[in-house]
Amino acid sequence: MQHVQGRIFRDLALPGVSPAERSALYIAMIETLARLHSFNVNSLGLQGYGRGSGYCKRQISTWRRQYQAAAHADIPAMDELAEWLVNNVPAGDAEENLIHGDFRIDNIIFHPREARVLAVLDWELSTTGHPLADFAYSIAFYFWPPNLMHLNLGTFKNINDTAGIPTIEELVSVYSRCRGTTTSLDNLNFFLALSYFKIASICQGIYARYLLGNSAAENSHKFGNMVETLATAGLQIAKKTSFTTAIQFRSTGELFQQSQRGKEVLQKVKDFMGKHVFPAEKEMAEFYARNKHSPDVWKKPALIERLKERAKAEGLWNLFLPAVSGLGQVDYALIAEETGKCYFAPEVFNCHAPDTGNMEVLHMYGSEEQKKQWLEPLLEGKISSCFCMTEPDVASSDATNMECSLQRDGGSFIINGKKWWSSGAGNPNCKFAIVMARDKNTSASRYKQHSMIIVPMDTPGVKLIRPLSVFGYFDYFHGGHFEVHFNNVRVPASHLILGEGRGFEIAQGRLGPGRIHHCMRSIGAAETALRILCERSAQRVTFGKKLYHHEVVAHWIAECRIAIEQARLLTLKAASRIDTLGNREARKEVSMIKVVAPRAVLKVVDCAIQVCGGAGFTDDFPLAQMFAFVRTLRVADGPDEVHLSAIAKMELLDQAKQLNAHL
Predict the structure, then answer these.
(1) Closest Cα partner for 504 from 583, 405, 436?
(2) Fewest Cβ atoms closer than 10 Å to its Cβ: which of 445, 480, 598, 605?
(3) Which helix (H) or strand (E) holds 462?
(4) 0.70 surpassed by pTM
(5) 60-82: string of b/e by CB count within 10 Å (b at 16+)?
(6) 216 pLDDT higher than 70
(7) Tens digits of per-residue pLDDT, 559-577?
(8) Which residues have C-beta within 8 Å of that of residue 44, sequence separation ≥ 6?
(9) Strand, helix or coil at 55?
């Protein structure tokens, strides 16, 4: 603990972290356990570390002796449990994997900001033996007796109702995947019962020290009452015929589970949209029609500020950020879909790009000074920001091509280069940019040459060159998409985010959730387009019958619904994997939705335009602008071709792993 700086959670509920991070921390714990069990004892030179086969029998004997030496009263349940364990030792009691012996989340040091294990503590019980003993001990809290809940002993308590805690099924899946095997659970009830016998014996020892006046723990007097309850619980688990019957499933039957809070917030967002946002569409359209040729067109209408204040007052604010909202990615994905039905809705809830991505970056990687100066006003909606990455003079589909330079000069950095498609830069309230730049003088690998740095927009040398149009649309509401030049721009070294050469690391950390948000918002737009398609086909008549009576139009409607449902399901799967496994394990699904969702939505919008005829190309409908926006998603955050190559590479690796597992 003196040598590794990080986080240690003494409470299994992991208070103070979001449900999404809570899930990722538990997944990281099980992944670490699986790696530990995968080590080859012989190759590590640990042939004599354990006492050979018979681990389970020795464990029963050891904890039975310790219990009997500390017993203060006759507890029949403990004796009965011990006898059951002796008589039901698994036939495979010859396994000699490296095991920890006391593996639980409060014996782990996690990275200060990331859901990553840095160190495992308390190895005094480590030996060689059966790996399921460790696994069962780490999940024993799932069966914690309800009548001990009130004791609130931190490490020992049931947390099944805590948002974000993965299900046992999910942990088993992670463990099996990391070990590259199908984990046999036939004897898991034995190892769970052994864990409860072990915990009961430990509790008895703590209480015995209390009676002798040797226990320093303030709550040591509580442990005496736990022994019989734990032994009884162990007996109940022991007598289950299989693992599956022992599990108290928390699944509601949903394919991708929303939390209760997620359901409540989604309904509030739907109500708010219906009552305040959709009725404001006409006034918004009139504002931009009136100011089309005025400098005021870049300003936000006063209506938006009124809606933002109302949303903030109702608690519908910063919903995209799990640490603030308490929502997981599945929860927010469905909310993003709802807000995608109206182009200005995301900003009403302070959930609009690029501010969301920048807030995620600063929240995850920013220093305390950076958070106070830039993140806090963004979270409050007082300022806006932009993100400068893509460049006009190089092929940005390969991000290592970036030429914008970053040079250290004493206590400052000097930036020179050109950026474009800097969304939001034209907003008068845009106060800073996060700029991706490259140190050309470093000998580091090409993925460690780039850094991200905060550049205030009023810094000398920052110049807005021109707004770029998308199929003729300038996207005034979102602050446009500007070309920005940086000419000898000097900013303090304290503005550097995370550290030199960490740019790609930061980019990968922010892309997963952001891509899910984009995809779900575009699916919301597809729902709007399909509604317009259906309404128009029911209103217009050609060749003597309503449009929807023409089989080709009816088929378009059906194909559009299928495309939307498919895209939504895959996107929710990606969100679910981020919730349960973290960004890294969801990379393939995130790349897939980045290809699938824009294609599906473009298909729906194109069909709607076709049914609306000439009107579909005008501003009488939102379809033309919708098409322009969604078409950019096939290039933004990596073109389809880059994602397809990445998907193919990951699929080939997965197939190779499966092949090796069967050999």
Answers:
(1) 436
(2) 445
(3) strand 462-467
(4) no
(5) beebbebbeebbeeebebbeebb
(6) no
(7) 999 999 999 999 999 998 8
(8) 98
(9) helix
